[in-house]
Write a structure and sequence with these properties.
Number of strands: 3
Radius of gyration: 28 Å
Helix content: 40-55%
Number of helices: 7
Oligomer: single chain
Shape: elongated
Length: 183
């Protein structure tokens, strides 16, 4: 009998066996801290963590970094649901950046309770701004925005080599100008 036991001296063999089994289980390494953290949770448990954090949408085709970011920002989004900040955070959790202009910020003034989104989804590696992915983002914005508000949506584009694109546009414009001057 172990000196660290809490059992009385007259305990049965079954009680001692249960105590030994319990000690074995308690000696196993527990990963509760890792499983509840979206950044250290094993990828195969992310759908259950998303369910626990009450994510409204989940797609197994999303890249792992987007899944982790969606889970990490879920509580803050739920806390501020119905605000421009929550709409911004939803879009950022999908790996995008957004410009939000509410009706009172527009020139001329827009209709009350409307806003305009300019959304760029190519800001993170692994993010493919496909039509389905953009639909997922818009659906989540609809769940997060104030219910009475309506929005217009414009999808922006982000290029890694902006200088090359500008040079190509100038070359085309120069050639067109040159062709019109010779005629």
């Amino acid at each position: 009998m172990s000196s660290t036991t809490l059992l009385p001296p007259n305990s049965s063999a079954l009680e001692r066996a249960l105590e030994a089994a319990d000690a074995t289980v308690l000696g196993l390494p527990m990963r509760h801290g890792q499983i509840k953290d979206p950044w250290s949770c094993p990828a195969e448990y992310l759908p259950w963590l998303a369910w626990e954090f009450s994510l409204d949408t989940w797609d197994s085709a999303w890249p792992e970094n987007i899944k982790r970011q969606r889970i990490a920002s879920a509580i803050n989004i739920q806390r501020h649901k119905g605000t421009a900040g929550s709409v911004r955070e939803v879009i950022e959790s999908f790996g995008g950046s957004v410009s939000i202009r509410e009706w009172w910020q527009q020139e001329p003034l827009g209709k009350p309770h409307t806003f305009a989104l300019v959304l760029t989804l190519s800001g993170r590696p692994g993010v493919d701004p496909s039509a389905k992915y953009v639909e997922d983002v818009i659906a989540e914005v609809n769940r997060t925005k104030p219910v009475r508000s309506h929005f217009t949506f414009t999808q922006g584009a982000e290029f890694a080599e902006q200088l090359g694109l500008v040079a190509a546009v100038k070359a085309v414009a120069y050639r067109r100008l040159q062709m019109t001057t010779e005629d």
